[in-house]
Specification:
Blueprint lengths: L1 H6 L4 H8 L3 H8 L7 H11 L3 H4 L3 H8 L1
């Protein structure tokens, strides 16, 4: 998400405003300390005009698939 935000020239504060969440929430999502709710994940996908899957990688299943 951080890369997508940077590519679009959005600050954390501006993205937070678009998502109607705090800047701290954006930071926590970007650092992996917080997984967004499904409704918030859909909002994020709409802001970036892409699918949830392209934004949030399921690292648990990805590591299992690599084995």
């Amino acid at each position: 998400m951080k890369l997508l935000r940077a590519e679009r020239g959005l600050s954390q504060a501006k993205l937070a405003e678009l998502l109607d969440v705090s800047r701290q929430s954006v930071i926590a999502i970007e650092t992996g300390k917080y997984d967004p709710s499904l409704p918030l994940a859909f909002k994020i996908a709409r802001v970036f005009e892409t699918s949830i899957e392209k934004i949030f990688e399921d690292t648990e299943n990805a590591s299992e698939a690599a084995e």
